[in-house]
Amino acid sequence: FKRNFDWKDPYTFWSKTVKASPDSPRALANLALAEKSRGDMVKAEEYFRKSLELEPYYAPAVNGLFDILTEKGRIKEAEDMLVEALKRFPDKIDFYRVLIGFYTERGKTEEARSLCKNVTALLSLGVGDIDDYLPIGMQTFQLGLLAESEKIFRYAFEKMPWSSYIANNLASLCRAKKDYAEAVRYYEIAIKKQPSNPVYYYNLGNLYDDTEKPVAAISSYKKAIDIAENYGDAWYNLGMVYEKAGNLKEANQCFKMVAKIEPENFEVRKKYE
């Protein structure tokens, strides 16, 4: 019973762990996270700093302290800390992810894009685990660096050919490049690997709609809805395809479903009222 009590929540568990192993950077960083979840930012910062005293630039503690500093508005201090960490450990992929996100949120697009290119170069050298690169693959895509993003996801797919997530992202990249045949191929791969995911059918429907293939788009949207009946976006886009085809009766039924699913969506009511 005592052991179970120690495990009852993260704070209790990591408090006990730190008492037993006060020189563990991992335990201190996890206790800091537990304090943060309890709303005690002062204690959280204290434990993150203790973790870093034991192991300078321990990634979970660096990233955790970075989040605390930014939340407290100590932006320059947070940025300087992470830039210094990256200088000392230029192969720490997770530092890139956090700093790219930081620059992107603050409109420092060129700084973010530069870091994306740097981290993509590390991929060629075999630095880090492929899982570390996947979030950066999305960041590069959102920053319009399609070549870099494609490089990351194609490499990832070679290493993890079973991943529907990676196949879906490759499809979205191909769609952005207007390589529609490849986009269809990768969406179909994603669907084959995870046929219960409605998002993949929805994405394929959007692609067919973009390429003016309404019959295929309707089929894909309906498959998404079969899996997730309350998929408002799929209902709405299905209605739009019907509307463009002049089938207003079917379109209005779709828009009414959206209004039922999303009662706060007053705009969609204008489509059929």
Structure description:
The protein has 273 residues and is mainly α. The chain has a domain of 89 residues: Alpha Horseshoe (Serine Threonine Protein Phosphatase 5, Tetratricopeptide repeat), CATH 1.25.40.10. It contains 17 helices and no strands. Helix 4 packs antiparallel against helix 5, helix 7 runs parallel beside helix 9 and helix 9 runs antiparallel to helix 10. The radius of gyration is 24 Å and the shape is globular. The N terminus is likely disordered.
What integer value in Å does the Rg equal?
A: 24 Å
Helix content: over 70%
Please report the first level of CATH classification, the CATH class of the domain at 1-89.
Mainly Alpha
Report the uncertain regions.
1-5
Oligomer: single chain
SSE pattern: HHHHHHHHHHHHHHHHH
Provide the structure class. Answer: mainly alpha
Q: Got a strand count?
A: 0
CATH topology of the domain at 1-89: Serine Threonine Protein Phosphatase 5, Tetratricopeptide repeat
The helix count comes to 17
Q: Based on Cα principal axes, name the global outline.
A: globular
Tell me which CATH architecture of the domain at 1-89 applies here.
Alpha Horseshoe
* N-to-C CA distance: 62 Å
Describe the biggest sheet?
Answer: none
Return the average pLDDT rounded to an integer: 93
CATH superfamily of the domain at 1-89: Tetratricopeptide repeat domain
